Amino acid sequence: MKTWLITGCSSGIGRGIAKAVLKKGDNAVVTARDTSKIADLVDQYPNTALGVALDITKKESISAAVKQAQERFGTIDVLINNAGVSDSKHFYSYEDADFDRVMNINLRSVFLMSKAAAEVMKKQKKGVILNTSSMVSIYGQPAGVAYPTSKFAVNGMTKSLARELGKDGIRVNAVAPGIIATDMVKALDPNMISAMAKGVPVQRLGEPEDIANAFLFLASDMASYISGAVLSVDGAY
User: Fold this and answer.
1) Burial of 123 (0-12, 13-18, 19+ CB in 10 A)
2) CB 108 within 8 A of CB 157
3) pLDDT exceeding 70 applies to what percent of the chain?
4) C-alpha–C-alpha distance, residues 75 and 1, integer Å
5) What one-character-per-residue DSSP string does 155-221 give?
6) Could you tell me the CA-to-CA distances from 44 to 50, 51, 108, 158, 162 in Å, in that order?
7) Cα–Cα distances in Å, from 129 out to 15, 76, 145?
8) Are 202 and 236 in contact (CB under 8 A)?
9) Is the dihedral angle over the CA atoms 174, 76, 107, 184 positive or is it negative?
10) Contact between 20 and 13 (Cβ < 8 Å)
11) What value does the mean pLDDT take over residues 24-50?
12) Which distant-in-sequence residues (6+ apart) come within 8 Å of 134 by Cβ?
């Protein structure tokens, strides 16, 4: 049984990962800024789920979450850096604060979370750090420049940490999702959703479970020689 620390579990991909981990029978420290949004997961899996309030931009909040994970389960085997934010502002409309906000949440938090978890994993001489990237980290996007910029940087951090932390028994990889049918996407006009699906070569949108399966694989012993990879899960989009 492994212990997972997962950020951004209140909805979407993070929630899908948490549900898959708990269904598998592993321990999961499920985190969100608002713990009421993850209470049902903890209620459903009282023995293996720990709900923790977490602000990924604050070191003291991260330290507290790591401490709670160790106190409850004794270890942290897998860290999932999933929490993030996107935007679609046009470049000429960007304020410094807009750019800084996205980079702080999507990139600096990955650094802070990874550092805190790696210190635990080094003592264990084993561990896996997995980051949620995006297909736009490869292709960019026509607006909201901070988001793909942050994800390009997450890819770079993933590859660099994989090379640096390998000697400590820590593997580091990322998953780059395509268009996923999260609540936000499902709320769009059905005609728009249909058009989006037709643009994907496999002719459907991805589900949070598709992304969760990729994380489960990369965290498993089946992927023991995979590190520094950015795995695209996008239906060949």
Assistant:
1) exposed
2) no
3) 100
4) 11
5) HHHHHHHHHHHGGGTEEEEEEEE-SB--HHHHTS-HHHHHHHHHTSTTSS-B-HHHHHHHHHHHHSG
6) 11, 12, 32, 33, 35
7) 18, 10, 26
8) yes
9) positive
10) no
11) 97
12) 147, 148, 151, 176, 177
**DSSP 3-state assignment of 47?**
coil
Do residues 82 and 17 lie in contact, with contact meaning Cβ atoms separated by under 8 Å? yes
Instruction: Pick the catalytic residue from 92, 147, 225, 237.
Output: 147
- The two three-digit tokens of residue 97, written as one number: 């604060």
Please tell me the distance from the alpha carbon of residue 78 to that of residue 41, in angstroms, as a whole number.
18
pTM for the whole thing? 0.97
8 A C-beta contact, residue 106 and residue 126: no
Do β-strands 127-132 and 78-81 pair in parallel, antiparallel, or remain unpaired? parallel
92 is a catalytic site residue: no
Type and span of the H or E element at 79 = strand 78-81
Task: Classify 7 in phi/psi space as left (phi over 0), alpha (psi -120 to 50) or beta.
Answer: beta
Angle (CA) 58 83 59, round 5°: 15
pLDDT digits (tens, 9 = 90+) for 182-229: 887 888 899 988 999 999 999 999 999 999 999 999 999 999 999 999
